[in-house]
Here is the input.
Amino acid sequence: MPFKQKSSGKLLPLQLAAVIFLTVSGGPYGLEQLFAYAGNHGAMLLLLIIPLLWDIPTILTVLELNSLMPVTGGYYQWVKHALGIRWAFFEGWWTWLYTFLDLAIYPVLFITYAGFFFPEIAHYKLPVCLAIIWLSAILNILGIVPVGKVSVLLGTMVLIPFGLIFFMLVHPGTHVHIPAPSLKGLSFPAISMGVYTVMWNFLGWDNATTYAGEVARPVRSYLQSISIAFFLVFGVYLMTTIAVHQSGIDPTVLNNGGFPVLGVLAGGRWLGIVVAAGGMASTVGLYSAVLLSVSRVPQVMADDQLLPAWFCSLHPRFNTPYISIIASSLIVSILVLFTFSDLVVMDIILYGAGLSLEFIALLMLRIKEPLRPRPFRIPLGNAGLIAMIALPMLVYVIALSGALVSSEKMGGPITLALGMLLSAAVAWRLIRWRNPALAAKP
Here is the structure.
């Protein structure tokens, strides 16, 4: 049955903005590699350019499609309405797999930042990761509003450390050195991997739409909340880049030690501790926010008989898709065995495939239903939309090229990711075999 929730249990705009911020970014944590690849000047240029090419088209697409269909299931429902049940299954399957990979990254990052306090924690990686996974599962089963409230708290914990670093290094009376945007002297592999790193740190705007049916006044709330989240993400990344340049820290040292090292350099060990704690809060917040989005996709696919009916089961007290949450958590518990770099490479490949279907859905719905009311409409015609869609796809190709040419070790993860993409076709054939009625659907 369709997922429903009382109006009193709806997510409010500030809570939604916090959830989106944590879904997409969670602060600059994970951005350290960018400075190692591109240097401070290259990092500044990529942070100014990539959001315009990658994020703005994606955000505009999400806002128009969500205003057209603000329903639980988000991108799955858009693709189903525009392209039919088969491509909706591909969309749901790919984004389901990509989100599992994305989820598995955050407990691994938690270990990295917790290592600032307890270096020996690396020996207990698996039990700590499992604790994060299942505590987040419990929080999500309790409902969307608890997740929203915790996201506001965790989002604050993420922003405060970088505000302190920026103030320590760029306070009144100091001569501020802003890195001039430039890619001079950088090789193509370095530029490509820099693009890849920035793109990964701006992923997930569409994920926040899978629970639109649980948001108060969804069209208006998403417009406000996504705008707030974007400027928070963009602003804190630029502030961090200026702070890194101002500190004079060696990019290799920053990459090896993470942002807690920058905190120690800026204000002493106490600030390093605050930054490390913020990194731990960031990873927990990201995990809970992303789990919130992915747990709604299997449910709507089950409603369409594309997955077993027990995915539709709602918790008798909290009215949340607890079976889907538990199933997702079980899969992520296995994926944490992969390395961070392997997970990120596979993550990007699967995400780009799913995002391409959303872009096609945007264009097809403009062609098929041009007069259907859209509270938010991208001010472009069909030709303009095609040009807009080409920009993030170009970024995707450059990022993938960087993964291919920068390291021979990426061959395995890329092959595995391609196999995961092809698994959608195999799964679709099995589903149609078990449910012949689907063959009659477009």
Q: What stands out?
A: The chain has one domain: 7-440.
